[in-house]
Each structure stands twice: as C-alpha cells, then as structure tokens.
Amino acid sequence: MIRFWYKKFPQYPPDHSDYWRIRLIEHSLLITTSYFLILTLINLFYFEGYQYALLDGFGLLTSLGIYYRFRKTGHVKITSWAVTIMVASLIMLFVISTKGHSHSLFWATLIPPFSFFLIGRKWGTFISCVTFSVCALLVYLQTQNPQPVTFGTGSLFNVIEVCIAQILLLRYYEKTRFSAYKKLALRNIEIQKMAETDKLTGLYNREKLDVVLDKLLTIPAANTDTVHPPRSAEGKAPLSPVAHSSVIDNVTDSNTIPPLLKPSSSLQYPISVAIIDIDHFKRINDNHGHLVGDHVLYELAQLLQSQMRNDDLLARWGGEEFVVVLPNTTSADAIELTERLRRYIATQNIQGMALTISVGVAQYTIKDSAYSLLGRADKALYLAKAQGRNRVAVA
User: Fold this and answer.
1) In 3-state terms, what secondary structure has residue 290?
2) Mean pLDDT of 335-353
3) CA within 20 to 30 Å of 231's CA: 10, 85, 103, 381, which one?
C-alpha cells in the first residue's frame, strides 16, 4: 500500500529539481489523509462531535481528491498550493471554531512546515504570519474575558496528535535533506573527477598535474640525492600494477604532506619528472585515422599506468605526450626506470602495431619551478628524438 502511494513520475528523475518536492507532496498527502481519517472516526464515535467529524471528513475527501489529481497530472506547483491551502484552511477553521481552547492552537504549528516545504520561503512566511496573527488574536480575546481553564481528553488528544504529526513531517524532511545532500556530494565528486581526468585515456589531465607538481615542489625536502626505498606493491620498481597514486591523493589534501616528503623527516628525497612521447604518432593518424589513434592512446595509457609504482603520477600532457612525476627518485634512477619502461612498450602489440616511445628526464633543482622543470624534461625529450627516437635522454 505504501509503495503504491508513492508514484514514480518519469518526467521527474532523481536528479530533477522537483524530485524531492514531489516526494514531500506525496508524504504530506499520506499524513493528512491518515490524520483526517483517524480524526473523523475519533470525533464521530468517541467525542460524538459531529461538527468536527464533518470538518475532518471534508479534509479526508479533499486530500484524496488532491492526491488523485496529482497522480493523474503530476502538476507540482498546483498541488503544492492545493495541499498548503487545504491544510491551513482546515486547521484554522478548527482553531477558530474552538476559540483556541483545549490546546487547539497547537495545530497551527503544523502550518509553517507544510507551507515552507511546499511553496517556499516567500509565501510560506506570508501564510505563517497570517496564521499566527489569527492565533494571537484568539489568545487576546481570551485575555479580555478570562475564564477558568480545564483540561480534558480533547486537550490530551490535540497535543499528542500534533506532536506525532510534527515528528513524521520533520523526520521525512530530514531524510529528504540528507538524501539530497548525499547526492550533491557524490555529484561534486564526479565533477571534480571529470575536472582532473583526461576523458580519452582516463589518466590525470594537465591541470591536475600542474596542481600536484606545484605542491610537491614547495616541500623543502624535494631537492636532494638521498633516496628512500621506493614504495611499491612488491618492494621493487617499476613493474607493479597500481590503480591510484598514494602520494597524489595525499598532496591533493592541503592539510597533508606525503610521509615520504615531510620536511621534518630526518631524510630528504629527490623528485624527477619524465615526459613520454609516442614516436611517429602522426603517421598512425594519417594512415589509420584518428579513431585508431585514439585507441592507441588509450591502450598505451593503460600499459604505462600498469607499470607505475605506488607513488608515481602518470598524466596526459597533451596530444601523444605523457608526463610521469617520480617522487623519491634521482635522475639516475629515473633513467633506469624509464629505460625499462621504454623496452617494455617496445615489446607490446597495440592495435596491431609495434610502437616505440622517446623519453626526456629531468630532476628538480632548487632553482626550478614546475614550469622550468617540465621545460628541461621537454628539452631532453627533443634531444632523444634528435638522437634517433626510441631512447631516453636526460637534461
């Protein structure tokens, strides 16, 4: 029965701005329908208050009518106003008819949640102000003709019923708010991932590379030839597959400095970078087309990534060029690692072709910025190409 009540509208998917508003409308109508049914029966058979039973019965029929119309049309704005006006009108008719006695004024506290949640701040404020003004007037009239107050069963029922309704409303509202914020947080993570990931290869893009490299190079311990044992899944480099770079994850957090690169450490560690370029990539695009060229870039990116150590960052620099940031690596070690990588790629079959790569290596010095470090590695890459390609050169 509950699942049937909450209808799914194809025109309002979970990411639509009115999705949670629709759910709140359905929840509100479920509460009002249930309450008016219960109140009709209580006033009819327990209190024998036929006037109030008639009022509650009218509310029951109105709630069902609004619900039926909403399921048929899916009109969010019209239904929101209809629910708000119905709830506010029937509650105020009840409060006025009792002259505010028997704790009936408690029912007026249900009007702001309905009006604010369904029709927004502007009109919610207006309706709430009108409601509470009427309540204040009723209390003022009571003060002009004070009478002894007695609390009966009706007062107890009014307090209990309003408290339960408030809990149901606010509990559901908190659920929708939490779900909305959760979806927003997940969406922000997706957007951040899209902003720092190359769409074709799935690697980090140049923007992410620039941010991470700038942060790494601001660490005073970066410029030295003292090397810590490389952090690899198997304790050796570079032939151990890894999904992500732990150093990059740490550096992205502005409050965290990677353990290998903390300035307070008794040891200090070097940083090197390598720029990788596919030899004669233009021929692939010219002879086989750009779609084949895209597949080549993707497959090569996966092969390169599979050879990275845990702390290495591989990013697409642009076109057919890739950059590897090598923390805790001297230029000599970087040459050894990239030479092994070059030989590995030369043995692979990518889209039915044997490819080779040229690599330029540079180690950070105290005078370097991220720009100048990459510039030196780029010059080394052009040197490798000038010397015949399929080789590693160092700046």
Assistant:
1) helix
2) 94
3) 381
